[in-house]
Amino acid sequence: MATPVAQEQRTLGLTEPGRPPLRAPRTSLKLRNALIGWTFILPNFLGFAVLTLTPVITLFYISLTSWNIFGAAQWVGLDNFARLIGDKSFHTALGNTFYYAVVHIPVTIVVSLGLALLLNQKLRGAAFFRTVAFFPYITSIVAVAVVWNMLFSPEYGPINQFLSLLVEGDLPGWTVSKDWAMPAVIIVGTWKDMGYYMLLFLAGLQTVPGELHEAARIDGANTWQRFWNVTLPCLRPTMFFVTVMVTIQSFKVFDLILVMTDGGPGQATLVLSQYIYQKGFEQFEFGYASAVAVVLFLICILVTVVQFLYNKRKEA
Amino acid sequence: MNRKIMSGVGLAAVASLALTGCGGQDEPAAVDGPVTLTLAGWDFASTPEFQTLADAYHEANPDVTVELKEYPAGDDYDTALTADLAAGAAPDVFIVKNLKNYVTFTEGGTLLDISDVAAELDPATGGLAPMEVDGATYAVPYRQDSWLLYYNKELFEKAGVDLPDGSWTWDDYAEAAAELTEGIGEKQVTGTYLHSWQSTVQGFALAQSGAPLDGGDFSFLAPYYERALAMQDEGSQPSYATVTTNELAYQAQFGTQKAAMLPMGSWYIGTLVAEQESGAADTFEWGIAPIPQADESTTGTDATPVTFGDPTTMGINSGIDESKIETAKDFLAFAAGPEGAAALAGIGITPALIDDAVADTVFGLDGVPQDDLSRFAYTTHETLPENPVGPTTAAIQTILGEAHSAIMSESTPVDEALAEAEERVVNEVG
Question: Coiled-coil intervals in this record (chain B) (predicted)?
């Protein structure tokens, strides 16, 4: 390809005769293309490098020290991680994080997929209901927490007043009960997130070819069979993306818990990211907090890698 | 590359020197000529105390200007200030807002030893003694709120219950709350209101029992929790569940006459006066009484009631320019001394040093109750810190905070929750 270009250049008198102009333009063109490419991603990469990559790398170092933010960090090796093994609060936080994730991930996926299927119909006012479902996602988390806390109020809240019509006996104490605080938080978390994932599923549903449904219908497949054998397989890329996102988000849950229950009552809803905040910013044990953060990082990356491998196997 | 950075730093340094008008040749500790001190504070719009102190000091020392640097309010103040301290960018003088972080600041070497300033202060300055760490003082209190009992005289009269007379123990208080609730007889009005903070139970228990926070034994909290639970079960006060889920505000509960009594810090005097004036609170006659006591040995107006309250203190950044140290120390002595106290009292803030002039100023403000008991309650008390200075205080308070929500939400029985907290202290704090 370079030869005709060089030929042309020579005939046009662009290059001096007698010099072999073959390699130089090619490499410089390549370099120029690469430079242009880098320039385009540079603003984003700079932000990422300064605000995310550097702190993450520093985090690994700090997790091996007993840094309390002032002065130099004292190297303590793996002491912080050894301490994690015997730290009951860490165990509680780890357990609660898994509790939240294990329930929140499937429930959110099922609810948002259900909403997407429902609102993908040719329904009067579908656009309105899509907006309604998306609204919680863009509402301020603090406002959401305050309102839901009032709804959940065991004595005066409308939820328990409604439940008292249906069931006899003790009603859940929701955010002020050790057993019900986590379900309450999961309900609000699902309600808040479902709109966003619904939107992703809606976009995914547009890519399901109509012909496949038609062919399946001619073959005598009922609605359930068509959903299971046509819609779901076609949604796999979307499903994969949603699963990865909702998983990471569930393990990192922080703000919702902080404003709704602040980890309470007791430690009933204490999660890892909140424990990191507590140890780091309230008690100034940044080394130890970093060690907890490293554990959270490893959990997220492990789960994501497993999902990637599973997706790859399915793809093949 | 390195040389470039170095020359850049040099340039910046020269530029900043030129800008601030400082020459490197000036002899240190020179106080002649104008000096500018910087002071860290938060939320200046609603917290005028910093500007008040700065102005008062400037008036007394026209050569010195105190420049304020605003930080975010709430817990973010500590976070933002800590970041600045770690980066060496914090102001010359800063407020140690939360006593539980004082040790972190001193151990981090961010505070200058100002024992000489502390030694010259009036020993009656509230909260001064507990600031001493290993024989040295690194911050001095300029403001100290103490917890008092606010009561609504009109609701007491309506219920036909005798007004507090300074002789109350907590049992008398619980009894009065029950009588008030019944006597007032309105559905949404309770005898008293206990806010959701852990200090509303633990602060009193710690101060009045005399038990150490880091002694590893939390049984001193048990009677205080038993009483608080009994009171919320009886309906003498809104339950913890209602307070937290409905985000009740103590200002609204007492200010709009939903509660006849309220244990609260002395900062609420200024708030209540302002809210009654603006109409945010109802207009009614109220008073202040000493906080109820553990037993009769500290009750009555001839004794000194024991209550709690953390001082708000001020320290000097150890990274301060050497030539400014003397000025900064002088400013601290001013702020924590009688002149600073007078200036603070003028805007309704309780200074650490409460003398007669301060009491006259506070009780001279419009809307502040004029009875003798209110004045006694405001001026006479032994106020112990909620967060005794110590390396384990912050961690223990987190654990006790979680125990508080477990107990008050009635998720966990008192003994079980306290035993768990003791176990956690051994396990996590050591």
Answer: none
